[in-house]
Specification:
Radius of gyration of chain B: 25 Å
Helix content of chain B: over 70%
Distance between the termini of chain B: 80 Å
Shape of chain B: rod-shaped
Strand content of chain A: under 5%
Oligomer: heterodimer
Number of strands of chain B: 0
Structural class of chain B: mainly alpha
Structural class of chain A: mainly alpha
Order of helices and strands of chain B: HH
């Protein structure tokens, strides 16, 4: 497994990069891109769960409970992918004022929030047996919770502003401000003395754990891609209908 | 598996529940919206210049039938 596994992972990374390139260049429609990633993500989720739960060894210090890492850490991959999509789309919206970027930003925030919530919950479940507590106001945990609350605020703001262009402008600003918190979350374990451990590197982790973790990270990324394209389509359909009726109301 | 089995099970269960529930909900919302969109297009034509042209064609066709 250790000889074939990394090759498969690199092939999957190539698949991700090629399909992403085709999508960004406009050669692959969003729905086909989403379907490709979704269908590739499902068996990978199953494979990653098997590798993480049964195949990889237990941690020498934490024991079996360390297996939570294989769902906890990939959740942050999904969170990062979602919020990064929202950041890029928000900047593009403010620059070009095209509604399609607002739809991508909305999709990015909602999907990012789903993974953010999952990361917070699995982290709390992992914290109880290792730290003896469900939650503490540690810099990493606090900055992550603040990020979650800012993006919940983004959705609340969307619900309160009726005029589509004003809403898109205001929420783009919120998404950009909210994203500024992401580097703080990432570096919090280095900048401050925290209970949360600093990032591990493949050199300090057993190769079996690296393989299981990379498989789950890719699986979560692919599932996140599927969700993003579907959520974008939903936002687009609703947005087009809303903009149509809004124009009718303002003209009429 | 020894110590912490309950915590591991809870973490994986939450992951399956949250991702599964969101995916199913999203697919349902999208299906509903696609149906509504098709109904709107059928009644008024799709948005934009293509829609206006389509609506004009439909009007022309109904006038021809009326004659």
């Amino acid at each position: 497994m250790l000889t074939i596994g990394p090759i498969v992972v690199y092939l999957l990374i190539a698949f991700v990069l090629v399909t992403l390139g085709l999508r960004l260049s406009g050669r692959l429609p969003a729905s086909a891109f989403g379907s490709l990633w979704g269908w590739a993500g499902l068996p990978l989720l199953a494979a990653g769960s098997y590798l993480g739960l049964a195949w990889s060894p237990a941690d020498w210090q934490m024991g079996e409970v360390q297996r939570i890492m294989y769902v906890h850490f990939p959740s942050w991959v999904g969170t990062g992918a979602g919020y990064s999509t929202a950041l890029v789309a928000s900047v593009l919206y403010l620059a070009k004022r095209e509604p399609r970027f607002d739809y991508w930003a909305h999709a990015g925030v909602e999907v990012g929030l789903v993974f953010n919530a999952l990361g917070l919950i699995t982290g709390s479940i992992w914290g109880r047996p290792t730290w003896g507590i469900w939650w503490t106001w540690d810099p990493r945990l606090t900055s992550t919770a603040v990020m979650f609350i800012i993006f919940v605020g983004y959705l609340v703001l969307r619900a309160y502003i009726e005029e589509p262009d004003t809403r898109a402008r205001f929420t783009s600003a919120v998404a950009i401000i909210g994203f500024l918190n992401l580097p703080v979350v990432y570096f919090s374990v280095r900048w401050w003395r925290t209970l949360h451990q600093p990032q591990s590197t493949p050199e300090t982790v057993a190769p079996e754990m690296v393989l299981a973790l990379r498989t789950m990270m890719l699986a979560f990324l692919l599932v996140c891609g599927w969700m993003l394209t579907r959520r974008w389509e939903l936002a687009r359909l609703r947005g087009e209908a809303e903009r149509g009726s809004w124009e009718l109301e303002t003209v009429g | 598996m020894t110590g912490g089995t309950g915590f591991i099970a809870a973490a994986y269960l939450f992951a399956a529940l949250i991702l599964g529930a969101y995916s199913v909900g999203l697919a349902r919302r999208l299906r509903r919206e696609r149906t509504s969109s098709r109904m709107r297009d059928f009644r008024h034509g799709p948005p934009g210049p293509a829609g206006a042209a389509q609506t004009a064609d439909r009007k022309q066709a109904s006038m021809t039938r009326a004659k």
